[in-house]
Amino acid sequence: MKTLNKALITSMLSMGLASGAAAYTIDDGTDAAPGTDQYIGAGTTTGNDVFGAASAFEVFGMNVSNDMNYLYVDVDTNFDDVGSSYDFGDLFISVDGWNPFGSSPYANDDASNGETWEFAVDISSLLGGSANLLNLVGASAPVLSSDLFASGIRVGQEVLAAGDATVAGSASAAITGNTGDNSVLTNLSFQIALADLGLDALNPQEIGLRWTMTCANDITEGSYTVPEPGTLALLGLGLIGLSLRKRAKA
């Protein structure tokens, strides 16, 4: 009976996390309709969420979820690299929480005072649906928008991992909608092994996430807990139900 109960609990753990992986949205919103998780960041002369034309640079946010094995991140943006002077930036990940400078919407946060990132998915390495996951610990500081461009950008914002970062694994990645038409939403999707990040789906951990293009004219940044609290609640209810059923039979 103990073996059977252990098997049932293990199965419920797996099913609970797999079925409970509904996406949590880090909602950046727009200047006209700020999202609940809007991140502005420092480095502009306007203080707006988007520096420049929203039709070209708006980042609406990220949908984030996980199952037993993977972290999933989807970014939605108006930005399109086709015909642009700018490129897609890397996806930055912090695995020890999220600590931006100041308070929401973090209008004074930049690379000098904000979160220190441990990992990044190197978008420039994307080939055949796969990109390098880089370990940033011990590497040089990330590349800033102002390292790449002199004007027309949000300055002092990290956009790419440093060239001396080491490869920690491989992430599935894809970019769709970048057709040269800004009226078509661009989506960047990532699938990253939790083990490569040093994360365990059974041990809750807040992580930080960040994405922007290389000019940083709009940034989405926020936190997510692996696993989601809702997933743990569903799992807890299931285990309580299993316990009550066992007592009733006794």
Strand order of the largest sheet: 1-2-3-10-9-6-5-4-11-12
Helix/strand-derived category reads: alpha+beta
Oligomer: single chain
Mean pLDDT reading: 88
Unreliable runs, pLDDT <50, ≥5 residues?
1-20, 231-244
InterPro entries: Ice-binding_C (IPR013424)
Organism: Marinobacter maroccanus
Keywords: Signal
Pfam family, one: PEP-CTERM
List keywords for this structure.
32% strand, ten-stranded antiparallel sheet, PEP-CTERM sorting domain-containing protein, 250 residues, signal, globular, disordered N terminus, alpha+beta, Ice-binding_C
Short description:
The protein has 250 residues and is α+β, with helices and mostly antiparallel strands. Helices cover 19% and strands 32% of the residues.
Task: Write up what this structure looks like.
The protein has 250 residues and is an alpha+beta fold. The chain has one domain (21-227). It is 19% helix and 32% strand. Strands 1-2-3-10-9-6-5-4-11-12 form a 10-stranded antiparallel beta sheet, with no helix packed on it. A hairpin with a 2-residue loop joins strand 5 and strand 6 (130-135). The longest helix is centred in the C-terminal third of the chain and has 21 residues, at 229-249. It is globular and about 40 Å long. The protein starts with a helix and ends with a helix. Mean pLDDT is 88; it is low at 1-20 and 231-244.
